[in-house]
Prior knowledge:
The chain is of the alpha+beta class.
Amino acid sequence: MLWRFGPAEFDEAAFVLRVGGVECELQTRPLQVLQLLLRHAGEVVTREEILDAVWGHRHITDSTINSLVSRLRRALGDEEFRVIGNVARVGYRLGVPVHAEPVAGFSPGASPLEAGSAVPHRADFVLAEPLGNGGDVEVWLARHRHTREPRVFKFAFDGPRLSSLKREVTLARVLLQTLGDRPDFVRPVDWNFESLPFSIELPHAGRNLIEWAQAHGGLGAVPLERRIALLADIAETVAAAHGAGVLHKDLKPANVLMDEASPRPRVVDFGCGGLLDPERLAELEVTRMGFTREDAGTSAAAGTALYLAPEVLAGQAPTAQADVYALGVMLYQFCIGQLQAPITPGWQGRVDDELLREDIEAAAHGDLARRLGSAAELAHRLRSLPQRREAIDDERALRERAHALQRTLETQRARRPWVVATIALLASGLVASTALLLFAQDQREEALRQQSIAEATRRFLRDDIMRATSPDQRSSTREPSLIDAIRAAADKVGQRFAGQPRLEAEVRGELGSLYNQTTEYPLAVVQFRRALDLLEHDPRASARSLALTRYRLAQALIGQYEHTQARTVLDAATVPPGADAEVAFARDLAWGDYLYRTGESALALPYRESAVENLRRLDAGDTLAISLARIQLANIHRVLHHAEEARRIADEVAAELTARHLDGTTAYATVIALSARLAHDRHRYADAIPLGLAAADLMREIAGHDTMTVVEVLSYVSASHTAMGDYAQARSTTQRCHDALLALGHPAAAAAAIGLAHVDYLAGDGAALPRMQRLVADYDAESRARTGQPPPLAMSGRFDLADDLLASGAADALPLVRDLVASLDLAAWQRGTGEHDWPARFEALQGRLAVLEGDKTRARRQLEPAIAAMIEAKSPRHQIERAQRALAATE
């Protein structure tokens, strides 16, 4: 029917409004309102009638109807409401005369199609059977008259339905030009948009999912693993469409086709679809068929109610997350084996698998902010179900081990003779090591000399250090720590060994080693440098003593982050011919530390392995020393992502120390610390925190204050609090680290200050951001001035600063953010961490930078997979949320 009224005419067949002979660009729904008013010309059309005719339900607000009528009035030039008049609190009525003229060959709503007849405009094909009514169109299976080749035809008999066909062709062309000819989409072969009935022609691509399930005895008869794999396939296909900027908006089992000849399901019927970015049509030079400029995006709430997201039912424009909601509903149906089942209260009781319950909840969450951000995330979660189940088992085992370690730690506090035990072990180990020198007759004299030195050192350790722990020698009632005892005795070394430079050098070397073990690196450097000076001025000093002292000095310098000086000392140290296992052990320990701290963990691994073997040859009974060496080896495995090997070593060492009642020692505390690091690497933050605190408490108890090792453990505790969003606890722990580093005179205090500013900004202190910016610049400049190298912890500070600047959204920060992101070296960073998700975090950071630069396409391409990987890995909460907000800004 052709309707004429005032200066306008409405072509019902083509579903086009013309005013003054010019076609108006309007969405389908305003035209549907006009069609209803024309068919009831002169009558009042109520709001309820409009809702029923246009939406099919009454869950739309009055403002939405008012908006549609306003668009019609603007198109008609009806500023004074003479064409479309208001009827107060009731509805609307046309106020001008209307004339209707039939359009030849057109009868609204009529379908001339019947099986056995030729396909209109395609005489070579014969209609075989209807495949259903798609709501907007009729769908038929047809076969070629001679070859019997099957084809599917979709027919429309009026303008609104024609728009659906045009939209499907347009979106198919977008998908083809963006993604190529993929087997999981069905591309139209031909179309007729010129004469009634309008149609598109598609290849036959199998039965829909409902029919396929029925043919297999119902979906419940299909193994659950196969069902989940199918849903993951569908989610990946939808994710690909989203990546091309295409929304489906009507995902449901009936729009998924299964063909036994194809390995993957096909997602079809994009007739209700939309574009995330309408400008994609111009970029791809695709004709804007089926879209007005207003509805090329995501305006209309189309689709099947069961699968529509709550925000769409409430009138909001669909987004990619609306498609995710539909996938979540389908996932629930796949899990219970019943297609078309709704998600009702108590649905969790029908899904046994806890991970699948999590996935359904995440995908079909009614709160848009808490729903998965992309179909790619859902696909990734489903693909990694076996690994996630394994991780849950590991987490439970880790939690049980953490509880066991905590119980053991609590019981060991009653044991207090640790000072005596430590000194006795050090002294006995020193004497035992010299016995290895008695391996040849021609070296007996040197061996006897070394043994006498060892005896003198043992007496010093026994008498002077033990005397410092005596109640008679204490000035306070506080029980002294081992460090207290060593410091008290160290002041007497020069006096005790006056005139005996070789003995003084040996004793200072042993004191330096004790300081190394307790991470008192500045004190260790002082002792080793004095010892080295004495040895270098002694013409009779052995090459062995010089080598040991240099290797141990290098260890202290490495602990103080003086890597350039450490390398100079290492290069000067040489292993003398025929050197014993102790020298080889010192060499392996120093080079292993240097390579680990400079990001070359793969090169450090053989040194750490050799250190364990050399220590066993030196003294197989030294459980504490061997345990510490093995823990250092396990830490290298951790950084190299050999988590299972690291855990195996940690478990063995913990069991041995506990069996020997050595669970009050530094070695045992270091095992707990390693367990905390492993938990943090797997992002089991709730487990990492108590383990880290337990290790730090024991280390502090032994040393008497927060040492560098305590700080390193607490840094993982602080990072875990930050990742969980507990910024108050994170700040408290970081402040403790900062104060300890200042007291130690360690350069990493600057990095801790940067960490404090970062946590403050996360907690809402906007003034912390410029402070953090200054601290990062100062830290970098100071380190380069002192060592000529960037500081070892600078990359973490630069990453956090870029992260916070992007979160601020400040456009004037763009040049700095670009420089910061460009300076980040992912490969170098990964060599120093045991966490697996840093590639995703780096990708998300770059995607957020792309948003700030205005490149939405690149941003989506980077952010969607990065967010999926970060959610799967349980990355820090604030980084996931920031990435999700950035992704939402691209829509």
